[in-house]
Automatic annotation (TrEMBL):
Keywords: ATP-binding, Nucleotide-binding, Transport. InterPro entries: AAA+_ATPase (IPR003593), ABC_transporter-like_ATP-bd (IPR003439), ABC_Transporter_VariousFunc (IPR051782), P-loop_NTPase (IPR027417). The lineage of its organism: Bacteria, Bacillati, Bacillota, Bacilli, Bacillales. PANTHER family: ABC TRANSPORTER ATP-BINDING PROTEIN ALBC-RELATED. This is ATP-binding cassette domain-containing protein. Residues 2-231 form the ABC transporter domain. GO terms for molecular function: ATP binding; ATP hydrolysis activity. It comes from the Bacteria.
Amino acid sequence: MLKLKDVSVAYKDKKVLDKLSLTAEQGEVIGLVAPNGTGKTTLFNVIANFLKPNSGTVSFHEKHSYRSEKEEIRIHKQLATFPDQSDLFEELSGIDHLKLYANMWQKTTKHVPSIVEALHMTGYVKKKVRTYSLGMRQRLCFAMMEAADTPMMLMDEVMNGLDLSNVALISQRLNDLKKKEKLIFVASHLLENLDLYADRVLFLKDGKIIHEQHFHGDGDAFIKISLEKEQYQHIKNTYSLPDDYHFIANHLLCIPIKDMVMDSQAEWMNRLLPFNREITIGPLGTIEYYEKYFHS
Ligand SMILES: Nc1ncnc2c1ncn2[C@@H]1O[C@H](COP(=O)(O)OP(=O)(O)OP(=O)(O)O)[C@@H](O)[C@H]1O
């Protein structure tokens, strides 16, 4: 288990993390979502102790923390961070990188061939990295995490530069890793596919986790319809909207139906149908939450 308590980080007078707390368990894949420059990498750097927070604590399994070098080594045996493409050695091959990570964390390379095969890297893994495309490098970075095979993994921008079929492949591999009881954080700007592998998504804003979206279990349902501002104003002026409705990003009206009797739900449908717009019913998705919190 990983626990962050009241973690704050400021660069000079710029507060990036502000008394942030979170708890995460093995077997979870957790998405971390926020616009550029919000603090996702900073949060990962704190978890990995590449950056000391100004205040707050990071602990693992309720007993280990970065209080000594010995403890840090113990934690780092359990934790790998996604390599940056610029960290790759241009003159080494993919297989060299994989062996390096496998040996460093697992003291063996016997699991490497199956990773190469599963990630469809057989055709290029023996060539030097300098010959690789963006997508090939990214797959190598992911494969290095699998070679490290640590119980905890921090993955920043894991889907960067991948085409659709590789996004699907990596999503599947993340699901397989979850089944192996790993705890994985994935910071991503690719919101559409987070629900394929994440158990929950954390929305980071103003230095805090301002919302946690769960995919397993029922999110609160809404009637959702995209409207012009004037149409929304008309509805607002004519009817009494429930307290916790949303008008997301000035276009999506979301009316909660959790506590609404069937007759009222039908009444709302009848009011909205004349607008001749697509109406859906369901919980808010990741993109809708993103627009709700970050649309300016
Ligand atoms: N070493 C540093 N010195 C000063 N400011 C920094 C430093 N590192 C990060 N920042 C600032 O902290 C804020 C958060 O940066 P961070 O890299 O954590 O964001 P991010 O959410 O990971 O962004 P991105 O999605 O672009 O990767 C940014 O405003 C950034 O300019």
